[in-house]
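Quick one: co-fold with iron/sulfur cluster.
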Amino acid sequence: MKLIAPNYYTKFKCIADRCKHSCCIGWVIDVDPDTLAYYHSVTGPLGERLKKGIDESGETAHFILGKGERCPFLNKSGLCDLIIGLGEDCLCQICTDHPRYRNFYSDRTEIGLGICCEAAGKLILKQQEKTTLVVLEDDGGVEELEAPDESLLVWREQLMQIVQDRSRSIEKRADVLLQAAEMTIPNRSLAEWADIYLELERLESDWTDRLEELKQTDLSKAPVLDTPEWEIAFEQLLVYFLYRQLPFALDDGEYEARAAFCVLSYRIIRDLCRVHAVLHGSVDLDDLVEISRQYSAEIEYSDENVEALLDALFEE
Ligand code: SF4
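Sure, here it is.
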């Protein structure tokens, strides 16, 4: 069995107290049973805090978020009191993993970094070299994938190659990708797309504001964002979506729609960047990282939202 990852994966490092949108704020963090058992064994003041800081009344134990929806162990300096007191190994599975995600195949596991984390977003979207997949672990056996897995991976590789063909503009590559997937994106105005996104479940009020701006801003004079710097960043964004999102088609059969969802996501993020340029006089890759972070948190981490968008791709 192999463990596969994008080539940037091993360079990731959490920026902890320098993170502007810490994953320790605003997310319900479940505590897995093994870690919970360990926390029960902790004594002293930290043991007392653990008892008070975890809700065990429901099916799954979770940290009780405090003021501003902060994890009760995130201190004023933006550091984790559990790591300080017990070491990194004490963390529950979710805290250990985040922002990593995994996709499982019959004879392979793929791992990646979610762009809902700003440090991961920066690493991915600012990488200049093409994203490639590397083997992180290998038991030495011959990979024996089931046929649907194998077909999906071959198809995804073809789509990634289309997206990484730097002899064409990124917009042309997105069009070719849609042709290869035999999909078109319904011809809606940006205001109509914004309305569709506004109907979805939303977490941050800033995200609602962005969508309202998308609805109301005239982009006729906005920059097209086609310099080499932007083209490479959008390429990385599209490859990220393909790598992460296409495997879900193995479960729901929505191969073509999921490919189109990747293009839609890139285009909405690009146009949100253009809106930012009009409203703030300029836009740079840090803004792209932030807009992508919001998009990922609001859309990618909600199955309902992704499904609603897949449906919207088939409605005229
Ligand atoms: S969002 Fe990323 S950089 Fe920020 S605290 Fe979480 S893992 Fe670290």
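If it helps, The chain has a mean pLDDT of 96.
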